[in-house]
User: Fold this.
Amino acid sequence: MRLIGEEGEQLGVVLLQKALQIAYEHGLDLVQVASAENPPVCRLLDYGKYKYEQTKKERKAKKGQKIGLLKEVRLRPKIEEHDLQAKIKTARKLLEEGNKVKLMLRFRGREIIYPELGWKVLRKVAEASQGIAVVSNSVNEGNNIALVLSPVAQKKSKEKGTDAKTQNP
Assistant:
């Protein structure tokens, strides 16, 4: 097998017994890196330390990720203008936080025969949040119409927000 040392240096092609002996002398583990190669490649390393560093890297990578949750805002086709503005404000706030927003419009009773009223309300909300969101999906399911808004990349808006904070002490 081809043996690689602790620092990444090539130790050459050695027998398994010899590689195990070298690992034992250095107090390290013998780990097979590439079994498909001919001869197989093994490396000398402290396996516990290696696993610890791997989990540390994974945690750091997870910490950097922002999981955008799907939040729901419920609407009605005959919603009053002021109530609609309150719902739009809520949707914008959720989008600015980085969440996806599902606008769920419910029809009751005979309202279902006027779906254009529902689409009109959803169009108003989509237009109001045009700068910070894009429509990613719309579904007509029974007595409901659902419209999903996804936030636009926020790197520029965050930079502007930090500049504004530094200018106003």
